[in-house]
Design goal:
6-stranded mixed beta sheet, 30% strand, single chain, alpha+beta, 17 strands, Nitrilase/N-carbamoyl-D-aminoacid amidohydrolase
């Protein structure tokens, strides 16, 4: 394929799973009507972002893959004739749960899945309580629209993950995401720095690897608990960038959106010829990257 039209569904979630899925489907139908061949959904799009607290009862939200949600999304992929990248809370077995992206082919079949590798444990992001680190590695998922380098949220801060996906032939990097500001964050300058850093690191992955990047984030306020004023203000700002980090499409920080862009995949070849970063890598000198830290 020389060109790929992609749609991102930036949505605000509620505490009703069915309503969230209906919102996702409405966005996907709109994207498909606008010509999308590939649709990216945000991280854990069928639920509120439950990792703001540690609550053992919330493990009940997890489901097997294949399971009810994958069956539902597979039917949507087949109905619309699109490739879908979703993000689900996977129950692998009793006591083992993952934050998992599932990719559906146009025929509704599961093309592959990716389990989130980097798991945060910070105020408002208590994911280590819920998720076992992924064990499927950094392998692109082959589909009819290309090799998809699917990563999830916290993975987006790690250039190693993006690089390995690129080295294994990814045509595009895709990041389902849930990131925002907690109620305890009041410093407007610090909030701006955080937002800028998040945009910059992912545009840098596009540049360093010569491939497009698509990032789909949540939007809106989600309370820690029902009827509480404390919580997370997700900052939306989903975007699609080309292989030189240039913006192809951007959503705002406050509104749900169906973000669309057509990516010229053939241009990636030209960009890599002009900026041959992969050619000039010193693979004989990077042994230290396998260490946690290099003591003096």
């Amino acid at each position: 394929m020389n060109e790929l039209t992609i749609g991102l569904i930036q949505q605000q979630c509620t505490n009703e799973r069915e309503q969230n899925l209906e919102t996702s489907v409405a966005g996907m139908k709109k994207a498909a009507a606008l010509g999308a061949q590939l649709v990216l959904l945000q991280e854990l799009h069928s639920h509120l972002y439950f990792c703001q607290t540690e609550n053992a009862r919330l493990w009940d939200l997890a489901e097997p893959i294949p399971g009810p949600t994958t069956e539902f999304l597979g039917k949507i992929a087949k109905e619309l004739g699109i490739v879908i990248v979703s993000s689900l809370f996977e129950r692998r077995t009793a006591g083992i749960y993952h934050n998992t992206a599932v990719v559906f082919e146009k025929n509704g079949k599961i093309a592959g899945k990716y389990r989130k590798m980097h798991i945060p444990d910070d105020p408002g992001y208590y994911e280590k309580f819920y998720f076992t680190p992924g064990d499927l590695g950094f392998d692109p998922i082959n589909t009819s629209v290309g090799n998809l380098g699917v990563l999830i949220c916290w993975d987006q801060w790690y250039p190693e993950a993006a690089r390995l996906m690129a080295l294994r032939g990814a045509d595009i990097l895709l990041y389902p995401t849930a990131i925002g500001w907690g109620s305890q964050e009041h410093d407007s300058e610090e909030k701006q720095r955080q937002w800028d850093s998040w945009i910059l690191i992912q545009r840098a992955h596009a540049i360093a690897n010569g491939i497009p990047v698509a990032v789909c984030n949540r939007v809106g306020f989600e309370p820690v608990e029902p009827n509480k004023k404390e919580g997370m203000q997700f900052w939306g700002s989903s975007f699609i960038a080309g292989p030189q980090g240039e913006f192809l499409a951007k959503a705002d920080k406050e509104s749900p959106d169906v973000l669309m862009a057509t990516i010229n995949l053939k241009r990636c070849e030209q960009v890599r010829r002009g900026w041959p970063f992969l050619r000039d890598r010193r693979t004989d000198a990077y042994q230290g990257l396998m260490a946690r830290y290099l003591d003096a």
